Amino acid sequence: MKFRKTIGKNAAAIIFSASPERRSFDETHRFKQNKNFFYLTGFNQPNSALVILPEDISVDFPYMNRKKKVSEILFTQGSDDFAERWEGKRTSFEQVNKDVGVEAGMPIYLLDKFISTNLRTYRYLYTNIDQLINLRSEMREVMLGFVDKLRLHSVSHIFCDVNFIIGTMRKVKHEFEVNQIKRAIDITSKGFSGLLKIIKPGMMEYQVQAELEKIYRSYGATDIAYSTIVASGNNACYLHYDTNGDKISAGDLMVIDSGAEFNMYNADVTRTFPVSGRFNKAQRFIYDVVLTANKECISRARAGINFRELSAFSESLIANKLFRAGVIKKNNSIKRYTMHSLGHGLGLDVHDAVPHVKYSDVDYDKLIAGEVITIEPGLYFMKNDQTVPKQFRGIGVRIEDDILITKSGCVNLTAGIVKEPDEIEKLMAG
Question: Which of 85, 243, 337, 400 is most exposed, with minimal Cβ within 10 Å?
Fold first, then answer.
């Protein structure tokens, strides 16, 4: 296992699943698994923990009535007839090897004892510290003793967080992961295509959202990737607007930023549509500027390119076009209107894994083959912005595609989702 090799021979890891989050009184939010735990296990149940050891050790498994040499154990809640009548079937610890592929399972209530008995000899203990801090319900009770003794543990072990290490592993997607992302994108594509047939002035933004997410579900989405943004008119100038509460007006543009989730993997797509079915002259100009940046950046994306340089190229291209057209007075004012970076990693998280940053010793800003990123230039002119000509005020445009980086170039995974303005107008005209 790559993770085991990374942390070394004198290290063990305890990686916690997510815990149920309380919503109100006796109600919990819909469970969402910790992504790093899921990446290593594929296990989607709460109140669990994966223990990884550098070598096989002999462990007594009570339900087997024997000892077994293992280097990985998944601690789970196990079967509970009463709880399962309320919450659904669980994978028992006896079935872990068969159903999950981890070497062996044990009941979660034995985790603290196992740590005290078997992990004392390792200098380094790795864990997802954020999840340890946020343990809830049964897991909190199980680990109270361990947490209370952290002072004692900390003089015997060096505690390290796993999130950055697993994040670097997650940058390059395996074929299975790419296929899950493609499935999420295919579902998202069907949603956007369906919307073009129904968008019309007078609809509420939340009605568009509801139609989109209904299509996602009808094609097998397991969730939405994030809160859907349906932003018409000036609302499109608020980057993370997701209130979706206004009426869609004739003549406005509408930015839809949305994605389906499939098997925990995400799509992330943005398209901008004219509510009345046709772009006016000012809207078309801004749209073409953003689309050119989107397409030019995609054509340049490949392994070895620095993402920040690609982002700087996008801003420079947009600034020059706006300056030459008299939309802005100074090229260096462009950040006021572009606001965000060019994109981010995509996978189990919508903003996936390690950000595109350069450290003193390692360059994580350089794109690598197998990485999936978004490319999403945008322009936003608030309706009260006196720095731009009147006809451009209240226009927001963003165009976002999901890109698989290859050694020689890239593959636009969302190429099938319409973005050419003439094609949009044709489809909206029916």
Answer: 85
Q: 107-126: b or e for each residue (b if 16 or more CB lie within 10 Å)?
A: bbebbbebbeebbeebebbb
Q: What is the DSSP letter of 87?
A: H
CB hemisphere CA count around 90 (13 angstroms): 21
**Domain hosting residue 241, numbered range:** 172-428
Same domain, 147 and 178: no
Most confident of 16-20, 74-78, 134-138, 418-422: 418-422
CB 260 within 8 A of CB 366: no
**How many folded domains does the chain comprise?**
2
CA distance 204 to 184: 26
Question: Each residue of 103-113: pLDDT tens digit?
Answer: 999 999 899 88
Rounded to whole angstroms, the Cα distance separating 194 from 210 reads: 12
Residues counted in the chain: 430
What is the CA 183 to chain-centroid distance, rounded?
15
- What H or E segment, with its residue span, contains residue 403? strand 401-405
55 C-beta neighbours (distance < 10 Å), count: 9
CA-to-CA separations, 128 to 115, 170, 399, 422, in angstroms, rounded: 15, 15, 35, 49
The proportion of the chain whose per-residue pLDDT surpasses 90, expressed as a percent, equals 75
Which pTM does this prediction carry? 0.95
